[in-house]
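Justification of computing resources. Each target in the renewal requires a structure prediction run like the one illustrated here; the chain below, 316 residues long, is used simply to show the kind of job we budget for.
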Amino acid sequence: MNLGRANLDEFGATVLALAEKDRDVLVVTSDSRGSGKLTPFGKALPDQIVEVGIAEQNLVGIAAGLTAAGKKVFAVSPACFLTARSLEQIKNDVCYSNWPVKLIGISAGVSYGALGSTHHSLHDFAVLRAIHNITVVAPADNFETRAALTAALDYPAPVYIRLGKRPMYNLHEPDAHFEFGKAIVLRDGPDVTFVATGETVIIALQAADRLAEEGIRCRVISMHTVKPLDEAALLAAARDSKALVTVEEHSVRGGLGGACAEVLLQAGVHVPFKIIGIPDEYTMTGSQEEIFRHYDITPEGLAQTAVELLAVAAAD
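Resulting structure tokens:
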């Protein structure tokens, strides 16, 4: 694995390339030109970018209106504000009205780190999963980011794509296939399955490397699409594994882990299972790395969780 750039940087380059080929591609942003890596876009294509200022509700409404007029609109704003301040507009103007706006939540999860809980987006999976007619995506690396944006361009329904700030390892082979709603198995093994999304996928892979040194073979799934969930991949993994761990940069309430639990329980599949994410408490302040370490979202922490679950499985 080689180190790539931040998914946000990949977004900026990809959306510029898409817009250069298609004048109907527009970016609408709420005072996020710099943080959204859109400065080169603005310089190259000033007629294809709309700045609304710090007005996220207006951002979503304008994006819906431009989409209704035939434009292909990327609405870009910090994830914490996009999916909270403008939630009603996402629900009514975009999803219920079925305008295929591409909602881009930047600096997602705990990417803003030291700015604290007001700037953490640990709720976005949960609230958007509860809204009809929206696809929810968290890319794990530059390939998934580029592929998700390209797939979203002409996708006939609303899409939310969640992006972070730190450089990401490139996890995929050049011939990898990406499709909304279809998970990607990055590593296979019969003992423990890690189902991860977004920037936690690399941590799951690193945990699998540690466990391999102890003779424990892991399956690692990049569940890039949180909604609709790839139920077939999840159920196959649960039936083939002795234990299953979900990993996400989100609250343990209502996100990837909750979605997986719903599927497993209703399918009657029973396997030792653990949701790893941010607990339901006032989140500590610090960098993303410090917050992950505090909550054991680390290779060491995930490996220990897997060992504990295997002990439960052996006792059953």
